[in-house]
Amino acid sequence: xxxxxxxxxxxxxxxxxxxxxxxxxxxxxxxxxxxxxxxxxxxxxxxxxxxxxxxxxxxxxxxxxxxxxxxxxxxxxxxxxxxxxxxxxxxxxxxxxxxxxxxxxxxxxxxxxxxxxxxxxxxxxxxxxxxxxxxxxxxxxxxxxxxxxxxxxxxxxxxxxxxxxxxxxxxxxxxxxxxxxxxxxxxxxxxxxxxxxxxxxxxxxxxxxxxxxxxxxxxxxxxxxxxxxxxxxxxxxxxxxxxxxxxxxxxxxxxxxxxxxxxxxxxxxxxxxxxxxxxxxxxxxxxxxxxxxxxxxxxxxxxxxxxxxxxxxxxxxxxxxxxxxxxxxxxxxxxxxxxxxxxxxxxxxxxxxxxxxxxxxxxxxxxxxxxxxxxxxxxxxxxxxxxxxxxxxxxxxxxxxxxxxxxxxxxxxxxxxxxxxxxxxxxxxxxxxxxxxxxxxxxxxxxxxxxxxxxxxxxxxxxxxxxxxxxxxxxxxxxxxxxxxxxxxxxxxxxxxxxxxxxxxxxxxxxxxx
Length: 514
Ligand SMILES: NC(=O)C1=CN([C@@H]2O[C@H](COP(=O)(O)OP(=O)(O)OC[C@H]3O[C@@H](n4cnc5c(N)ncnc54)[C@H](O)[C@@H]3O)[C@@H](O)[C@H]2O)[C@@H](O)CC1
Ligand SMILES: Nc1ncnc2c1ncn2[C@@H]1O[C@H](COP(=O)(O)OP(=O)(O)O)[C@@H](O)[C@H]1O
Ligand SMILES: [K+]
Fold this sequence. Notes:
Layout: H1 6-19, H2 24-42, E1 49-53, H3 57-71, E2 76-81, H4 89-99, E3 106-109, E4 123-127, H5 140-151, E5 156-160, E6 182-186, H6 199-202, E7 204-208, H7 214-219, E8 224-227, H8 229-235, E9 250-254, H9 261-272, E10 278-284, H10 288-294, E11 299-303, E12 324-327, H11 335-346, E13 353-354, H12 356-364, E14 377-378, H13 382-389, H14 395-409, E15 412-415, E16 421-423, E17 429-432, H15 444-457, H16 462-484, H17 491-496, H18 498-513
Parallel strand pairs: 1-2, 1-4, 2-3, 4-5, 5-6, 6-7, 8-17, 9-10, 9-12, 10-11, 12-13, 13-14, 14-15
Antiparallel strand pairs: 15-16, 16-17
Adenosine-5'-diphosphate is lined by residues 381, 416-418, 420, 435-437, 439-440, 442-446, 448, 473-474.
């Protein structure tokens, strides 16, 4: 699914109005009915509803929602927030329609002391500002937001399209906004929803299709995408009936050190469970028994260094052709490991997966960057990202930096998080849609390294591997949390549920082909 900017959404509205064709007021009615339906599905008519409406089209939505809910038997109070002098045409039209209803109470609020009381258990509809927000909110509107956020303790805030005050494409980190429980947004996710800095403002985003014109949506060009199932199903490569283990490549996981052999076990096991033909774990000698006993399906190559890996650079001397290599989980920062990695990276000619301590080694010696093979995949978490690329003032700036580095180095960078951001060498960024807070537990990232290496090994191109790998990793985490709970699940449980996810992708990919 494409993620559009506020101005592209305005264009999409205008294109739909002109080419469907449909009058703007009817498109607004469609959007408002979608919101009202959602509210009616989730909350019974007994609950009081308070609608805060601005003077633009977002407010127009609010007024239409108020009318639809009133007609459906809800008790609705409407407060129009006088944040500007002139109302939009469709706002005025909807105000007229609302006032035509018997007993429809409409209050105009000019100052915060005129705000209506919010009864406990109310459904608060926030339709003050939407995608038309073009500057950070200041002045008395700040107090209005403060009032709503404070009074809403025992109530539910449902924001329409955007939490009021939030801008779709720019940071509003330091500006006031409504803090929604749910944001009912039209047609597509907004960039602001993807960023952790807005997590407690957006609440749970719900995307409601409102039938914006297909031609516009298909042809509009954007650098931002939300990875949903429709993208994933096109990436999946079914295995050929005549294939053999040689078809799916020999993968190598370079991981582990004394006290961190779990990282090697998790990455190796997830690599095996992601379809590699053969998997070798390259570990220090202290990990030999652990590896062989815990994963009999994997081969084990030991580095003579003992508790750490000091001879990684000699890997090529073994005479094995690895189709894919994943390096980093738990390798530690022992000076001889650092030295050995620094030599190893200069010898690589095909894309590799680089994670964890391997990223920290690069951060400590930025001149290594030039040796990272084109189209390699780097998987930093936010701290590792900061060590590699430095601090940024907000997360929009961080996204810009992420994309610039992926382009400059001709690599894929997966910045981990709720919606992991995958920056591609062509400047595009894909946000992964799967995963849950149960995955915020040690070892989850090691599992991802194994999955990515396994996919590369069996012939997925790096872009397909990173998009599919991130999706599968999160979806297996979701399946694990459904089974064990977010609290009780561990990283190993993600691996345990990879099978369910591959089965389901395989099924929907083959159904789509019928
Ligand atoms: N036909 C359409 O264009 C549709 C529009 N829709 C709704 O229309 C919304 C966009 O409407 P508008 O473009 O009228 O914009 P908004 O309703 O978001 O904002 C209205 C006006 O508020 C003012 N404003 C901006 N930032 C402000 C600030 N910080 N403090 C105070 N005032 C500020 C601006 O003059 C802006 O035009 C969408 O979010 C969506 O809810 C939907 O009904 C779908 C159809
Ligand atoms: N709240 C969350 N929602 C979705 N995914 C998450 C969440 N927290 C963590 N994850 C995922 O779990 C993984 C954690 O990786 P990382 O921080 O490297 O863990 P570790 O170093 O312990 O292996 C990442 O892929 C991340 O996207
Ligand atoms: K809003």
